[in-house]
């Protein structure tokens, strides 16, 4: 019974039987992982190291130093902006005890890039490491004067003075630093410095925390309010002042006020603490609001760094749409579409244009503001028209929107402008499709064929099209579907005036062969069993018209036989297949006599300067009419040769 349920795949794929281990006793010789690693280590080949160079006299030492200095100078000449090259050079001079030369190298490095604070730090470390305190103070003063916004320089300078027990100088440096209004960490460092030395009267920024710790709640609140007033005028990075006070409702108000006052790019830590605060004290709505605020801050930072990052704008918009505030959503959309790509290149516009599409869909489907949707369509079409970028999707969407608003004239006007500005195949096809659908709606059973035909005529009259062959094929298929066979023949003749491509000839011939059958099927299937004389005559006419097309095509390719031999052979193959499909009415023998002979030949390969480099094989086609022509040429050549011999003999006599 089980074999009845096995499929063919189950019977084809057989899994191996598991092998039974007969002897499960441990091996006599046990090998540990430690032994394997030790053996691998012992079998490794020793590393090849450079031999150590020993210098035995001052002359060799001077030559060695000269050679190394030349190497360092050459390296600096090649990589002048590379700070590591300068650092290595200076450290090498220091290692040889030549402090004057090392100091000269540091000064040269600062002349190249004085904005690199790492060079200043290493320069000062060199001076301090070798006990040159006054030199170090000189370097620190120059560094903080040139780079007053680099906090690390101030911290290191103050730390040096504090390690030397020069508290007054350290306090003076803090006062100089505070004049530049550093971030909150700088002020906190100043406060901690004063608290370390018992100077509580100098602790200004951490005054509120000090009062809270020692019981002055009212005074602490007053300090917080004063800080909020200061930050509202000058939004420096001091959000820690807002999080020190711990009354829940007041703290929540302070958080929200601070998030509105402090710039988004500076409030990352404040947002993190606000989320932590809501997780601890808030309800689910408050937590959700805090998370949304934090994510909003992140997206604001991303679009601030790169306003052309459209993926960040999409994420930002999705966040606001999840919140559901229409005014905020529209504001973000307007900010996003204001960032137009700088270059007129469709690669940059593909992501950008979907901001408009999403905006349009939101206004129409979610906000349901049709007037605003129409205005946005107008702005978008105006933009892509001025920037010379074509997006058929936008034009078609605008026309379909007008149709949904029952404004057919506006839809036709939009499509007409689209054809004039961006004549793309997609626009023509959709215009024709819309006209046919409108014909069904307005006239019940009559299609607007004349309007569709006019659109096709306008389309093929365009001087440049992306894929004109598809447009011609659509026009021809349209006329065939309307059973307008004379118009179809005229279209084929017009197309042949533009191009004599092989596919056009074959398509024309196949149309002529099937035109009569389609007419018969259109009249009904009553004649399918007994073909009378009229249907036979009609079929013969179709076959004759088909042969006439093949004859014209064969004459054209024969006239250009030197260039189009392969196309001529393919045409004859199609003609032979067509004659075979006619059955007893076909003339297969006539076409077979025209088929070429396929032979393999060799031809020389030359370079651009006509130098032969070899031979290559290729296939050639020999047609019967070419063989006859070659025979006639041989006869004429023999007759000419006989005549020349006869003239020579007469002259000898």
UniProtKB/TrEMBL annotation:
Domain Pre-mRNA-splicing factor Syf1-like N-terminal HAT-repeats span(s) in chain numbering: 71-199, 297-434
Organism domain of life: Eukaryota
Residue stretches spanning the membrane: none
GO cellular component: post-mRNA release spliceosomal complex; precatalytic spliceosome; Prp19 complex; U2-type catalytic step 2 spliceosome
Chief subcellular location: nucleus
Cellular compartments annotated: Nucleus
InterPro entries listed in its UniProt record: HAT (IPR003107), HAT_Syf1-like_N (IPR055433), Syf1-like (IPR045075), TPR-like_helical_dom_sf (IPR011990)
Keyword Cytoplasm: no
Record bears the keyword Nucleus: yes
Pfam families: HAT_Syf1_CNRKL1_N
Known role: Involved in pre-mRNA splicing and cell cycle progression. Required for the spliceosome assembly and initiation of the DNA replication.
Family the entry assigns: Belongs to the crooked-neck family.
Designated name of the protein: Pre-mRNA-splicing factor Syf1-like N-terminal HAT-repeats domain-containing protein
């Amino acid at each position: 019974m089980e074999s009845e349920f096995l499929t063919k795949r189950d019977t084809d794929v057989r899994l191996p039987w598991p092998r039974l281990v007969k002897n499960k006793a441990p091996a006599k010789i046990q090998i540990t992982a430690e032994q394997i690693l030790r053996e691998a280590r012992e079998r490794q080949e020793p590393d090849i190291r450079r031999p150590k160079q020993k210098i035995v006299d001052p002359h060799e030492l001077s030559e060695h130093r000269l050679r190394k200095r030349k190497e360092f100078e050459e390296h600096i000449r090649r990589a002048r902006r590379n700070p590591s090259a300068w650092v290595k050079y200076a450290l090498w001079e220091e290692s040889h005890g030549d402090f004057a030369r090392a100091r000269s190298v540091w000064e040269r490095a600062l002349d190249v890039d004085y904005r690199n604070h790492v060079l200043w730090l290493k320069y000062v470390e060199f001076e301090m490491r070798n006990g040159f305190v006054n030199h170090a103070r000189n370097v620190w003063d120059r560094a903080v004067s040139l780079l007053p916004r680099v906090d690390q320089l101030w911290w290191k300078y103050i730390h040096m003075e504090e390690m030397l027990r020069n508290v007054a100088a350290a306090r003076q440096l803090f006062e100089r630093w505070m004049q530049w209004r550093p971030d909150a960490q700088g002020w906190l460092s100043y406060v901690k410095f004063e608290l370390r030395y018992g100077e509580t009267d100098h602790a200004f920024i951490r005054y509120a925390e000090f009062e809270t710790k020692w019981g002055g709640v009212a005074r602490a609140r007053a300090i917080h309010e004063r800080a909020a007033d200061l930050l509202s005028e000058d939004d420096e990075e001091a959000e820690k002042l807002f999080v020190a006070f711990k009354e829940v409702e007041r703290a929540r108000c302070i958080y929200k006020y601070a998030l509105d006052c402090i710039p988004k790019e500076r409030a990352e830590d404040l947002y993190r603490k606000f989320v932590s605060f809501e997780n601890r004290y808030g309800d689910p709505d408050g937590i959700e609001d805090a998370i949304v605020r934090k994510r909003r801050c992140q997206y604001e930072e991303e679009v601030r760094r790169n306003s052309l990052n459209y993926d960040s704008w999409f994420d930002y918009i999705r966040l606001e749409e999840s919140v559901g505030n229409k005014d905020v959503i529209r504001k973000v959309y307007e900010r996003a579409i204001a960032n137009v790509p700088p270059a007129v290149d469709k690669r940059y516009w593909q992501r950008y244009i979907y901001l408009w599409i999403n905006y349009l869909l939101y206004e129409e489907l979610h906000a349901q503001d049709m007037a605003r949707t129409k205005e946005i369509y107008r702005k978008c079409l105006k933009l892509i028209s001025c920037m010379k970028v074509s997006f058929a999707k936008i034009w078609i969407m605008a026309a379909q929107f007008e149709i949904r608003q029952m404004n057919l004239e506006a839809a036709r006007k939009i499509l007409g402008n689209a054809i004039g500005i961006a004549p793309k195949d997609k626009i023509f096809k959709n215009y024709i499709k819309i006209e046919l659908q409108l014909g069904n709606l307005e006239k019940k059973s009559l299609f607007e064929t004349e309007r569709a035909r006019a659109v096709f005529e306008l389309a093929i009259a365009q001087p440049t099209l992306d894929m004109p062959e598809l447009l011609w094929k659509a026009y021809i298929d349209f006329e065939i579907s309307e059973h307008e066979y004379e118009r179809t023949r005229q279209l084929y003749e017009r197309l042949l005036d533009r191009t004599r491509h092989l596919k056009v000839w074959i398509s024309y011939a196949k149309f002529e062969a099937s035109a009569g059958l389609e007419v018969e099927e259109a009249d009904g299937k009553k004649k399918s069993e007994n073909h009378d004389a009229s249907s036979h005559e009609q079929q013969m006419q179709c076959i004759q018209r088909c042969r006439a097309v093949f004859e014209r095509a064969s004459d054209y390719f024969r006239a250009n036989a030197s260039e189009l031999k392969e196309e001529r052979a393919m045409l004859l193959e199609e003609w032979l297949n067509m004659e075979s499909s006619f059955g007893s009415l076909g003339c297969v023998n006539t076409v077979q006599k025209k088929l070429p002979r396929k032979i393999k030949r060799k031809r020389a390969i030359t370079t651009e300067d006509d130098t032969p480099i070899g031979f290559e094989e290729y296939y050639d086609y020999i047609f019967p009419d070419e063989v006859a022509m070659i025979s006639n040429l041989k006869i004429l050549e023999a007759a000419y040769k006989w005549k020349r011999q006869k003239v020579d003999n007469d002259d000898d006599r």
